[in-house]
Amino acid sequence: MTKLSRRRFCITGLALAGAAPFAAALPAAAQTLKGGTLRVGVLYELANYDPQQLSTVNFHVIKNLYDSLIEYTPEGKPEPSLATNWTIAPDKTSVTLTLREGVSFHSGNPFKADSVLATLQKGADPKRGKNVFSTMAIVKDWSAPDERTVTINFKAPVPDRQILDLLQFLIPIDPKGIDTVETVPAGTGAYTLVSRAVGQGLTLKANPKYWREKQPLAQDLVFTVFSEDAAASAALESGAVDIVYNGSSRSAVRLKDAGFQVFSGPGQLVQVFRINSTRGPFRNKSFRQAFNYLMDRASILRVGYAGMGKVVALPWAPASPAFDESYTRTYAYDLDKAKKLIAASGLSADAMKGWKILVDGSNEASVTISQVVQGSLAKVGIPVELDMRQGAEYVTALLGGDFDATFGAVGNVQKFPTRVTTNSIYRTAGNPILKDPHPHPDYVAAIARVDGAAGGEAEVKAAYDNLNRVLVDEAFGIPTNSYDVGLIVASEKIGGVTLDIDNLFVARTIGFK
Amino acid sequence: MRDGLISLGRRLLARRGAALSLAFLALVALAAAFAGLLPLDPLGQSVADALKPPSSESWFGTDELGRDILARVVYGARTSLVTAFGAVLTAALVGVPVGLVAGFYGGWRDSLLMRCIDVLLALPNILFAMALIAVLGRSQSAALIAVGVAGIPGFARIARAQVMTLRSLDFVTAVRGFGGKPGYIMFRTILPNALSPLVVQAIVLASIAILLEAALAFLGVGVPPPTPSWGEMLRTGKSYLYEAPSYAVLPGLVLTLTILSFDTIGRALTAILDRDETDASGATIGGRR
């Protein structure tokens, strides 16, 4: 069982509060790196510049145009960023931040408390808060005693890790640009926007007033959008780009063998076989529980992700405090156990048929791993079809809950465990798939217990154990494996790569050897 | 008619290209029809054996799930041939009557029906098929209908042109004079005499249908997995070019040869029938060959 580290985080945070203004100082190795034009191949077209609409399609720009209030090291230790100090109240019902001086937005406006307040206001707005909104559920209100201080109050005592996760997730936006942030970036980041050609690429240039000393290294940052993973790899091999970001695991393995550098950060995703427990045979708990044993996780990891990742039976990355390896062994692929549970369900052969696995036809890994499950189901006498949909059609069905079962990755799995509820299938309220009232009250109660476990380590551990037990018992989400998102594959002349806790692309420390 | 078909077959076999094409298509059709009797499993997964190169156990290697590529190509022939046959049937069953009615009656019926056909013709086949599949859902039936609908204009225009040529000839006038009803004249008198170009069109459309089905599968909107399909295999094989260069070779080769065979036969038939027509015209008008 992973050791709990809440106290460590708190102590580390307080210790760093008095650290030098530039705690994220330039790595020693980076001192020898040269600047220039950094050319990056990406596989996704940017959706917009709003940091509160964080998704894999804008992973490559957010940490270059914006800064967070605090950062995590790859090991998960909090570090100052735009907030130089944070003090969690002894009763854990508030946190007080001290904001960095001498920072300005790209527009020239100074960074002050008003921008943090405007950002909190946007995040708490159900229409404008987007991804941040659910995280703001713990926040009661906020105030700014002066230009350099912000206090955030919580509705109830909140575990330290959850508070730190919130601060790391909050990215201050220029108040004057907050209404147009989807189309015009409004951050304090190391790079400013020069131009964008939709569907083709994006050009950024170094922010001359950036607050981190001697950063960014590269003067220009040019992103080129590739529609094919193989085309991006070929561009790297031919020297047309210096880095490929967020390519496939399979290409990364091949390119690593060919001598390229591969960097994988701690911010993995976990692939989850999502089950709509409000439909057909999935209303039956025994039938759902059979899927814990029907997942040939090792094959899924191998064919879908070239073996890069780890098989898991819980929705946590290995870095999560709730991660428990024993579940992976207990719920290993076992068709006999699956058959027993299917028999125990009492469902007729006809009742077990007639459902489909929704598949993202444009995602090669999704197609392949769905066929692995289809093969396992055929072995236990349940023939199912794949419901192939493309792009937006798939996303609409996925987020709208219009499916029987489907694979879908979940994020925030290395952070505070209840952050898993930011993913649609794990939402405790307003769940678009399972609807309200939530059909699994034990799960809702288990999440609430973790949220309320602000006491000693034993209490927290018991809350995590209970949540894990409930997750496999209710079996509406069957995790299969963690895998890398935001892989960085770079030519050997590149150095100074910084790994982000969420695997976002951070260009400011990257230079040429 | 039987003698005519035998004669046509002999003349086709006399052409080396057409004979080879017929032989290849016969092989593909036999493999598709009797695939179940062969020791081949197109669906059996063995992830441990994924992307293996050709060997004595798997003559053309294995795919990303360890399935035998040869088995999937053989069973994939069923997908292609059934789609092609169904599409031709759909297109002919709709297109031929439309062309017959338009050509036979003329006037507003002709204008109305041909404008509808013009609309169909104006739509790019692949886009139209994709739109139709988006509505019908991804399945073999949807692919078959989509490809078939795209083939309707060809049959309609050829049938119409034939009717307009034949409707004023003496044998049609005679039938009309004996009180033949329009339906009888169109389907029993004119149609049998207009079959030759329609048969050629059917063969040409079969090759187009196989290509279109493969293109749809290549674009990810064809027959859903795990049903084997040549286009789907090409699509997936493209992603594994580095790890398994041999993956896409067999499906690509068989697809190319099948289309080439249909096309060769279509050309040979056209040449034979054109020659017959020329001979017939010569005999009628000039009184000598």
From TrEMBL, chain A:
CDD domains for this protein:
PBP2_NikA_DppA_OppA_like
Look up the coiled coil feature and give its residue ranges. Answer: none
Xref: PROSITE patterns:
SBP_BACTERIAL_5, TAT
Gene3D superfamilies, per database record: Dipeptide-binding Protein, Domain 3, Periplasmic binding protein-like II
The family note in this entry says: Belongs to the bacterial solute-binding protein 5 family.
PANTHER family, alphabetically?
A: OLIGOPEPTIDE-BINDING PROTEIN APPA (PTHR30290:SF9), PERIPLASMIC BINDING COMPONENT OF ABC TRANSPORTER (PTHR30290)
Q: What is this protein called?
A: ABC transporter substrate-binding protein
Q: Which organism is it from?
A: Bosea minatitlanensis
Classification of source organism: Bacteria, Pseudomonadati, Pseudomonadota, Alphaproteobacteria, Hyphomicrobiales
From TrEMBL, chain B:
InterPro entries noted in UniProt: BP-dependent_transpt_permease, MetI-like, MetI-like_sf, OppC_N
List the lineage, top down: Bacteria, Pseudomonadati, Pseudomonadota, Alphaproteobacteria, Hyphomicrobiales
The record ties this protein, via CDD domains, to:
TM_PBP2
What is the protein's name according to its record?
ABC transporter permease
Q: Which family does it belong to?
A: Belongs to the binding-protein-dependent transport system permease family.
Boundaries of every ABC transmembrane type-1 domain copy: 77-266
Where can this protein be found?
Answer: Cell membrane
Q: What is its main location?
A: membrane
Q: Where are the transmembrane segments?
A: 81-105, 117-136, 142-159, 198-224, 244-265
Query: Topology in the membrane?
Result: Multi-pass membrane protein
Q: Which Pfam families does this entry report, sorted A to Z?
A: BPD_transp_1 (PF00528), OppC_N (PF12911)
Give the signal peptide range. none
